Amino acid sequence: MDSARDQGKNLKDITYSVLDLAPVTVGSTPSEAFKNTMSLAQNAEAWGYHRYWLAEHHNMPGIGSSATSVVIGYVAGGTKTIRVGSGGIMLPNHAPLVIAEQFGTLEAMYPGRIDLGLGRAPGTDQVTAMALRRDVRADGSEFPEQLEQLRAYFDPNSRYKRVRAFPGEGQKVPIWLLGSSGFSSALAAKLGLPFSFASHFSPEYTIPALTQYRERFQPSEELDRPHAMVGVNVFAADTTEEAEFIATSFQQQFLSMIRNTPGQLPPPVQSMDGLWTEQEKYIVMSRLSTAIIGNPDQVKRQLQAFLDETQADEMIINSAIYDHKARLRSYEIVAEITGMKP
Fold first, then answer.
1. Contact 150/91 with Cβ under 8 angstroms?
2. Cis omega (within 30 of 0) on the bond before 111?
3. pLDDT tens, 58-93?
4. How far apart are the first and last CA of the chain?
5. pTM of the entire structure?
6. How far apart are alpha carbons 187 and 204 in whole angstroms?
7. Where in the chain are the domains?
8. Range 2-337 classified under CATH 3.40.50.2300
9. CB 254 within 8 A of CB 263
10. What is the C-alpha radius of gyration for the chain, rounded to an integer number of angstroms?
11. Distance (Å, rounded) from C-alpha 339 to C-alpha 11?
């Protein structure tokens, strides 16, 4: 990666986007979560963020974005210019025709503003995946074939003509591949598609996946050169102490996930000591090792270091923060230090 560092990308050279799971906090409701999502989307648009992506997860009481296409339409309808899309739709959970129709509909409603990010994981546990897919044989291995079908529904010149997607056919909905390992990076490279890597929860595979994507990339009608986005958890505040405090909500939620007891996003605590064992602390902190926590100067330095390492074309920011005002402030700080917001 030394040659990549020599390119000298600065924070102002790339674009920034928002990853939102519509967090449902302890003591609140999904209705409040969606109001907060709209508030964040409108502010993110004003601050200069490029995209606003919603993620598909299921059987998780702290995540409100399970009906991802519906929430995308809600956000797009309440904003004017920011691109809105999925980060991502878990394609094996759905018939490709349905996704083509849903995103064809969204693109028809909000022309030129819709993105379709796709993943092959279930976005949930195996029992829930069964409830979604209704097929014990569906394990994600069929993802390339499903992707081919989906792309064919958008292509008016496709050889698949017996079943057609309306709306959908002929529309230019950008397709991204999302991944947390090497599978999707290799497929995105082969097909010449943009790629987004889940660095925010799979940090150890970030550089190998990006390297594979760039080295194997084959130009296509969509892209003539690789375009890589990386996910990053950011907890920014005006003081270091406040940033470390607000980050404990996400640490607690992640702890609940590894215990297989997912819950709503809890309020922050002064210390995580006594809430986790040493082994649990190690697991949580290793999975969140790329999280950026601090005051504006610290966050700026950490973001630049992450950019030096990844040479990303975009960063997509996830900030699961209990207090909505603190969450807005965290995204505002990122906008200020990266030059999005004057």
1. yes
2. no
3. 999 999 999 999 999 999 999 999 999 999 999 999
4. 32
5. 0.95
6. 20
7. 2-337
8. no
9. no
10. 19
11. 8
